[in-house]
Amino acid sequence: MNPVRRLVRWAAPALVISLGACAADPPAAVVAVRAEGCGAIGGVGAFVADGLVLTAAHTVAGATSLSVVRDGTPQPAEVAALDPGLDLALLRTAGPAGHTYTTSTGTVAAGAVATVWTVRDGQPEAVPVTVVRRVVIDTTDIYLEGTYHRPGLELEGAIEPGDSGAPVVAAGVLVGVVWARSTAAFGRAWAIEPVPVSGSADTTRCAG
After folding, report:
1. Which CATH code for domain 27-93?
2. What is the residue-averaged pLDDT of the chain?
């Protein structure tokens, strides 16, 4: 997980969507992200379109080799877009084919129950979380340089190291990408809202 120091501010009130009666989402879109280079990197991602996986940028920055893994089968991948300020990245891969998530920003309210779909010990795992509030995360870019303001969610749940990039799913919609967990408050973590990712940042540079 990203240990970058941060200042979290309240965001504007969110629009409410109905979440409480929804069953857990199937993990068909969720993959492990394996990355070689820059030390211990890699994490989790989710298909958001055919051949495109959304993840956290710091999990893949500087990687010399990338793959996405589902059901134990690795598939080569490459960085299609990386935003070091938002800490989001899109990976392009030929597969595996499967479900894709629709993304949404600003549609989940404080107190909503959601699911973080992660991959642990090679298996998809559902982690229940509560959205504490929508926030603006004041932090540095992934290189620990410029200051950026990321729209995000404060979460309460058992997020662990290695869960970076995992989708936060509410009512079948991807509403966040796990970014960091608190080292001071047990069970507290943050996710970045899935805003559009574009640009062609230097993908060979390791995160700070």
Report:
1. 2.40.10.10
2. 86
